[in-house]
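name: query_chain
kind: protein
chains: 1
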Amino acid sequence: MIANYSLRCVSWIVIVLVASVLHAEARHARSGSVVVMTRNLYVGADILRIVEVESPSDIPLVVAETLETVRRSQPAERMAAIADEIAKRKPHLVGLQEAFQIKTQFPGDFFIGNPHPAEYVEVDYLELLLGALEDRGLHYRVAAALANIDVELPGFAGLGPMGEPLFMDVRVVEISC
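structure:
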């Protein structure tokens, strides 16, 4: 008798909860609510390797290796996949973390005081994503952006004709928007 009563109570609670959820969803749809989505764009490499080097003289080689890993991570294809997710869900707002810009300069001037920041854009994840969204007929714009990181370091770029090391500058700007 008590078990039967408990089962009926649980059944009514489930029915009331389902009805409440359905009512809330219907009210939510009528209210013109805002759908939000967040994505971490991920740079495509472990950039923290640079701060874990044993010696400062290792930095240029680790920077060059990290840049090559980013290039091989297929940024355009990854941003296209994220654009497909956004196209499927069609959110009103999309929050992005780690929308990196990778900029380079050759020859680098880091070792002479870095008078000119690197400006050649190797990869711009935000622009890749916005372009992929436009290709899908979706029109998003940046409402607000915050640059969290803006760091420039020397990267090994090979050897010159006399066997001398050549360096480039690699600038990493990480943006949340």
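note: The first helix runs from residue 2 to 30.
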